[in-house]
Structure formats: structure tokens, C-alpha cells
Amino acid sequence: MDQATLRAHLALVLAMVIWGSSFIALKFAVTEIPPMIVVFLRMAVGSVSFLVVWPWLRHGFVYQKGDWKYLVGMALFEPCLYFLFEAQALQYTSAGQAGMVTSILPIMVAATAFIFLGERNSLRQWTGFFIAVTGVVWMTVTSEVSDQAPNALLGNFLEFMAMSMAVGYTLLVKHLTKRYSAFLLTALQSFVGALFFLPLSLASEWPAHLSMPVIGAIVYLGLVVTIGGYGLYNYSMHHVTASTAAGYTNLIPVVSLMFSVLLLGERLVLMQWLAVVLVFAGVFLSHDRKPIIPKDVPPGITG
């Protein structure tokens, strides 16, 4: 494995840690204020941050004719539709169960990438995907019932819809990172997301004041998660296949559970710890050993 590929894998691990922690922050914030307000403020914080560094960020940006449909499609899938579903999902299901649903993303991306990108996954990778999914399901099934999930069926379905949007996002980013920098794409997501969620937030009932913990959660989501998580994930897409990058999302429910133990005082039983080991084993098996993406990989979306 060359240095660039190693850095890409490390970036993916760090991105998953950040995204795993985001479930805790988002769940905490939406318990106090409407979800559309939370997402708008999150996107607004990210947008302001990118505006500060825009004079340096825009250097090297050369728009290529016809890319508007890929750029608009990427931003529509994520953050717009993705967070529209996920923010609502966390009102009805727990952060742990929402994290569990993310485990189906690798299977969805692998199947779609096979069709649109021509990516070939070995039996070893498919085995790793299914082992990781099994571990995530096992980890969730053996957990204790929480009153944080008043309607888990609805919440988990909404999270599934969010994952469907993530599939489209992953494939489009796979194409766009060949032309534009990861941070430029992340900035575009923040700007479009802020505009998209502004009218939705204005239609919600704003609280009289925001507590400092909620403000802290929103700033964390806007700065660390939006800029850091997406930036690291988009960077990695230069050096690994779309299905390999998506395979790392199996770490998200594990990280979410770890943060729940550390920050919320939740406890794991022995079976859950065994399931965590199974998830890591599955992610390891699903790694693609090819150092870089072949140059002749076709665009993720055509037409």
C-alpha cells in the first residue's frame, strides 16, 4: 500500500469517528429545537467557515462545461435530502439504531457501483460487507430497549431513505473528485444546504433562546462534522473505490455506541462487545487492496 492510499484509509477512519460522534450531537440538539432549525444552523456555520477561507479555496477552481448537473445532483442528494430524512429520523429512533441502519450503505453502494462504475468486488469484499452488517445487527439486537426511540420503525425507515440518498451522493462524488478538490465540493454542499434549509427553518417554531450545550453541538456539527468529516471522506475518494470508502461506514455505529458509553453512560453487554469485534473484522475483509482507482473508471452518473 503506497503512502497516498494509506493516508486515504486513515482519512476514512477519522471521518467515521467524526460521523459516529455526530449522531450523539444531532440527537441531543433535536431534542431541544426543531430538526430543520438544527440542520440550517449547522449548514450556516459551515458556510461562514468556508467563506472565511474562500479566497484560498477558490484558487485552482476551473468549472468544466456540463458539470452543473453533477454538482447540483451531489448537493441535492447530500446534504439536502439526506439531512431532511436523517434529522427527522432521529426524532423517532435512537442514535444507536440509526447508526445500525447505516450498515446497509456498503451493500447498496457496491451493487450500484457495479452497475454504474463497473467496479468489481471480490468474494472476500462481499464476505466482509455481510460480516460487518451481521455484526451491526447483532450489536443492536442485543442492546437494551431505550425510551429514546418512540417510533423506531418510522425512524429507521427514514434513516433508510437517508442512506438511499447517500448512495447517489457517493457515486457522484466519485466522479467529481476527479475534477474538483474535496474541500471545494464540501463548501458547495454547505452553501446549497444553508439555502435549502433556510425556508424550512423559517417555517419551524424558533425557541426563545438556545442553551449553551445546544449551541456547542451545532457549532461542532457545522465545523468539525461538516467540514472535517466530508472533507476527509471526499479526499479519500481520490485513492480508493466508492465501495471501499462506503465499507468504512460500518464503523459509524460502533463509534456511535462507544461515544454513547463515554458521554451518555450507556453500558455494553458481552454479546455487544463480540459484535463490535465482528464489525471491525468485516471492515478489514472488505478493504480493497488496489492502491489507486484505475484511470479508465467511467463517470458515476451519465446523461
UniProtKB/TrEMBL annotation:
Membrane topology annotation: Multi-pass membrane protein
Ranges where the EamA domain occurs: 8-140, 154-285
Transmembrane segments: 12-30, 36-56, 68-85, 97-116, 123-141, 153-173, 180-202, 214-233, 245-264, 270-286
GO cellular component: membrane
Lineage: Bacteria, Pseudomonadati, Pseudomonadota, Gammaproteobacteria, Oceanospirillales
Localisation per UniProt entry: Membrane
Pfam families: EamA
Family membership noted in the UniProt record: Belongs to the EamA transporter family.
Keywords linked to the UniProt accession: Membrane, Transmembrane, Transmembrane helix
The organism's place on the tree of life at top rank: Bacteria
Keyword Transmembrane attached: yes
Name by which UniProt lists this protein: EamA domain-containing protein
Stored InterPro entries: AA-Vitamin_Transporters, EamA_dom, EmrE-like
